[in-house]
Amino acid sequence: VCAISPKAIVSDACASFSTLDDLNRDLKPALSEITQKTDFFSYYRLNLYGKECPFWNDDSGLCGNRACAVNTLENEEDIPLVWRAKHLGQLEGPKAVHPEKSLQEKRGPAKPLQGELGEDVGESCVVEYDDECDERDYCMPEDKSTSAKGDYVSLVDNPERFTGYSGVGPRQVWDAIYRENCFSKDSFPHSASLGSSPPAGPAAFGLKSVLEKKGREQALVEQQKTEPALPFVAETGLELEGECVEKRVFYRVISGMHTSISTHLCWDFLNQTTGEWGPNLQCYKDRLHQHADRVSNLYFNYALVLRAITKLGPSLMDYTFCSGDPSQDRDTKYKVQGLLTQAGTAPRIFDESLMFVNGEGPSLKEDFRNRFRNVSRLMDCVGCDKCRLWGKLQTAGYGAALKVLFEFDNNALAVLVLKRTELVALFNTLARISDSLTAIHEFRLMVEAEELHS
Ligand code: FAD
């Protein structure tokens, strides 16, 4: 079996970039059909507005609040409305609201409510207890103190693309996300070169942080005023070599997600001179072309998420994708079965059995899960609606993939049942990575063409 070891860089394993490119080319049409053309997979329920950033003060000018996003383009007031970051970051299309829990309880937990949600917007979903998380989850449970259970948002109407969200807001979020990779103070990669301890990020806060945040957030803001921004773990590839495989995988998942976001915003970029949307080659060159490790981490994520979906495959073959329209439900099932059958014939490209087994591995699992939950909570600190939507969806998608890979026994496939939101996130996350791989391929061709002509 030719499998990508989590230890390997994708390109040094037998499954090379081109193997994965071929696989992606084969699976892409079926995956796009599923995520773009079925109600079940193209609407996502999330609590987009109801939760405040748990790690720092949303009102602070330093953080990823909406104001940060609005003020990112220079001389914003002079720019036509349609080009402004606030406008670009807004959600499009109708939303359907999740029904109150009391309504769900009346109907009973397991029964689908067909046609109940937003028929006027062409959306209807299984209503289930998908707001509860259990201890195996890598996602962040919904905040039970808020009554809002979220909205259903059309993913097709809100493509992931350039929004103009930049500057201090996203920088602070990315910094905090990468700090989650520091599993202990000792393994913090830059403590020596910084000459001081890293600031207390979400990682240091731990899961009790929401309760304790009030006292700490001010300290964090103060600390960040006085300390230089943290260098990124990305620039410390060599130091990662000495780390155990689990930490490395954690880093790669995050970095690969970052690569995918960067790819999408460069591929679907707004040319502010012409007002046209299209690929921005310079954006790609600056962020990705010179950074083979970042692109490699994207391939790594493709292998990881696809493996999770393949592992889930047998328990999905008979799943009822209930949308309220029986013929569409059958069609969705047919499409998913087609993808799973096709994916099932591919070589196994990721071997999760190597993780959490040797050395300090087993003891790291809970830490790994908690840190990933912290990353998912950090999405509430993202100050642009569309970015937050896709950030939340993708962290939930990776969370679902990690749960399938590491929380379910390979021999107990019957219990591999995910919640609807997890399934939607998982498939759409693979579709995001898949689109990114295609875009990077196109960008590479553009660079080659440019070099030929120069
Ligand atoms: P950033 O992308 O902010 O990166 C900061 C630093 O991280 C870099 O200088 C580099 O040192 C390091 N780094 C970069 N890429 C990697 C990598 N792959 N692996 C490891 N390290 C890396 N903007 C949009 O236009 N549309 C969106 O949909 C969108 N979604 C976002 C979602 C989230 C969760 C976040 C936090 C931000 C999002 N943004 C989005 C903003 C976008 O990601 C950038 O932050 C912004 O474009 C500014 O880019 P930058 O050049 O400052 O570098």
TrEMBL record:
Lineage: superkingdom: Eukaryota
GO biological process: protein folding in endoplasmic reticulum
Predominant location: endoplasmic reticulum
Covalent S-S links between cysteines: 63-68, 384-387
Annotated catalytic residues: 384 (nucleophile), 387
Cofactor(s) needed: FAD
A Gene Ontology cellular-component term: endoplasmic reticulum membrane
MF GO annotations: FAD binding; protein-disulfide reductase activity; thiol oxidase activity
Name the record gives this protein: Endoplasmic reticulum Oxidoreductin 1-domain-containing protein
Organism expressing this protein natively: Calycina marina
Segment of the intact protein contained: 39 to 492 of 571
